[in-house]
Design a protein that fits this description.
2 helices; about 0% strand
Amino acid sequence: MPVPWVQLIKLAPTILSMTNDLRRSARRLGKQPQAGPDTRLQELEKDLAQQAEGLHLLARQVEGLTEAATALRRSLLVALTLSGGAVLLALAALFLA
């Protein structure tokens, strides 16, 4: 399986947007006067949901990259095996000639 570059490129703006939102939210919390506990709890729950979504996107990307690396490893082993066989055949041809 090839590396899912198209999927990675498609998801990159979403990840960047979410990280920018989280950074702005963190800065805003530092500058704002302390809100009530209910408001702060709602903001924390919202931030947690955003972080969970970002983590989910990253996990999907890692899964795709892992599958691609596994397929690449398998292809590499096949290529090495075939090239080793070709070298043995070439050596045998040299000795028989």
